[in-house]
């Protein structure tokens, strides 16, 4: 299926097909957009099309080249994906790029914002003057997280959140009940980031329990200590990923509540599984307090970028809310 496998990104795919038609490629493409919307998938399918002689505008998925790329064994494909992309990763990629092979060599740097300063510095000249027939694709969530010198060397390709109907159709591959599939599609909120987790019944239930506990904390119906128990039951531990994920969830939840209170609408609400609880407990709630907690969470998220003690950040948030 090639590029046809990429759903919900029609504008982006049309642009990439124009590049394939002209075969006038920039040396670097920067795929930017939320996690879970198909950036890595698109990069791999684009590599197929670039090296496919059967269907060079899409990729055929049946020729030797496409099959090798799909199985990550083609010499023209290198995917650099790590919690931290280091200078050795860049040096190895550069060395491999100078090994001659027929076709277009594609280096895909996944979540390139995770690269170290030394790695970015090593990358600069390579991005500007790569070997002939080499394309570098960088994926990231926000351009602001990349050095300006890196951004200036690439062509930015934007990815949007996926349409609700696209998300729902994908969810229905794992969830038979139509109403539950619709609820999960709303919760996913335009990305497939947590798809594999939310389609598990136990995770789905525990997420709702955790967010209900958080709302009860705000309402002073539960203690911070009880909420911490629910947090550990759902996430397992306090680390950057879990704390950042919860803060994002909490911010979205408060945004939903504030929107419902102010606009009296529910169409664009993410957490529709909590609508009944919100209607019972928050329609007459103090709006200023909600906004104060919203700002507290925003500052905590900023703090995660500079403070290594993630446990301190989340505990500070919890007990500040408890004592507000």
UniProtKB/TrEMBL annotation:
Organism domain of life: Bacteria
UniProt xrefs under InterPro entries: DNA_Rep/Repair_Clamp_Loader, P-loop_NTPase
Statement: the UniProt record of this protein carries the keyword Transcription: no
Listed Pfam families: DNA_pol3_delta2
EC number: 2.7.7.7
Keyword Transferase attached: yes
MF-aspect GO terms: DNA-directed DNA polymerase activity
This protein's UniProt keywords: Nucleotidyltransferase, Transferase
A biological-process GO annotation: DNA-templated DNA replication
PANTHER family in the cross-refs: DNA POLYMERASE III SUBUNIT DELTA (PTHR11669:SF8), REPLICATION FACTOR C / DNA POLYMERASE III GAMMA-TAU SUBUNIT (PTHR11669)
Name assigned to this protein: DNA polymerase III delta' subunit
Organism expressing this protein natively: Caldisericum exile (strain DSM 21853 / NBRC 104410 / AZM16c01)
Phylogenetic lineage: Bacteria, Pseudomonadati, Caldisericota/Cryosericota group, Caldisericota, Caldisericia
């Amino acid at each position: 299926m090639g590029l046809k496998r990429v759903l919900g990104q029609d504008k982006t795919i049309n642009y990439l097909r124009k590049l394939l038609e002209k075969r006038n490629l920039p040396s670097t493409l920067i795929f930017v957009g939320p996690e879970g919307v198909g950036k890595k998938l698109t990069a791999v399918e684009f590599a197929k099309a670039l090296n496919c002689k059967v269907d060079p505008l899409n990729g055929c998925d049946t020729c030797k080249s496409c099959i090798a790329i799909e199985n990550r064994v083609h010499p023209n494909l290198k995917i650099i994906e790590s919690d931290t992309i280091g200078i050795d990763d860049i040096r190895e990629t550069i060395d491999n790029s100078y090994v001659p092979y027929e076709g277009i060599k594609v280096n895909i740097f996944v979540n390139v914002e995770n690269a170290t300063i030394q790695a970015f510095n090593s990358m600069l000249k390579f991005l500007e003057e790569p070997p002939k027939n080499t394309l570098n694709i960088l994926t990231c969530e926000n351009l602001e997280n990349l050095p300006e010198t890196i951004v200036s060397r690439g062509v930015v390709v934007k990815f949007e959140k996926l349409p609700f109907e696209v998300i729902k159709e994908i969810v229905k591959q794992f969830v038979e009940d139509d109403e539950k599939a619709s609820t999960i599609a709303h919760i996913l909120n335009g990305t497939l980031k947590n798809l594999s987790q939310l389609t598990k019944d136990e995770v789905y239930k525990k997420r709702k329990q955790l967010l209900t506990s958080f709302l009860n904390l705000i309402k002073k119906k539960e203690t911070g200590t009880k909420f911490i128990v629910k947090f550990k039951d759902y996430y397992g531990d306090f680390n950057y990923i879990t704390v950042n994920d919860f803060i994002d969830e909490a911010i979205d939840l408060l945004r939903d509540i504030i929107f419902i209170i102010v606009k009296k609408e529910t169409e664009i609400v993410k957490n529709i599984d909590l609508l009944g609880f919100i209607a019972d407990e928050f329609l007459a709630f103090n709006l200023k307090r909600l906004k104060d907690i919203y700002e507290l969470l925003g500052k905590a998220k900023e703090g995660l970028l500079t403070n290594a003690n993630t446990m301190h950040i989340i505990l500070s948030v919890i007990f500040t809310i408890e004592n507000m």
